Here is the input.
Amino acid sequence: MKLLPTTVVGSYPQPDWLIDRAVLGAKVPRVREPDLWRVRAEFLEEAQNDATLLAIQDMERAGIDIVTDGEMRRESYSNRFATALEGIDVERPGSTINRSGKPIPVPRVAGPIRRIRGVEIQDLVFLKKNTSRAAKITLPGPFTMAQQAQDDYYKDEEAMAMAFAAAVNEELRELFAAGADVVQLDEPWLQARPDRAARYGVKAINRALAGVTGTTVVHVCFGYAAAVHDKPSGYSVLPQLADTAATQISIEAAQPGLDLGVLKDLAPKTVMLGVIDLGTKEVESAGDVAKRLAAAFKYVAPEKLVAAPDCGMKYLPRATAFAKLQALAAGAAMARKALG
Here is the structure.
């Protein structure tokens, strides 16, 4: 892989003909939301395949090195996997308080959590068949799934998180066996609930990664830019993440104006650095991106950096997302050239 490779965090905007983006824009679904899809059930898989091809092609045309499927088949980053597990009552959801302090419907854990089938294996196979570039797939992390669930079975949040971790571990192993180049665990709630994260966040992540060989990423952030506008300039969880078994740590830095001195806490991990602000539709210049990357070199060697947007691009207009990916690729190339 070349110096300063580029990637996306996971999601890319779904076409308006596929999903009701106006309704989607008001929520991040935790339970199944079939009414969001504009395509009839018997045609949905074909439509999602076509949307995935468009996402892959956009990433390739923009010059992205490590591509995903854009999460075209998902209503959110987490609910596709979480609601496919045994032990989850999908007919009678539970409730929890979200990061904005509002009650929302979430998966209800009514029995032992078990993975009974591959959930994203075929998503990866489809991606691999349709790109020659490095392929990344994302999974919700066990800590975050535990925060997004109502526990009516374990009566012990840590035990529930460890059960989610075991399910994630089984999926991870199959994804790498199916040819994944990179698998990422999305753990935004580590930052939202730091006390619980300190108690068992790393433990749950390491259980999910146990025995896994391959490039793994843990992504943390302050929430989607579409939902969270005022973000702190520092993370409370970064020092702990250096203790995970993950190969890379993914953080957002552009929108919150992160003090990059915190990157020292992640040594010796590779850092997937957010250098594209998703809180604005204004498209960065290549020079902007190159400057943001260069600012990180003081704390992280260029060989240990991957360039990315802050977070998933799901809620941006597609034209804006594509232009931002072009800026990302051009800016990384500019920074690479400056290094000689």
In short: The chain has eleven helices and ten strands. Confidence is low (pLDDT under 50) at residues 224-229.
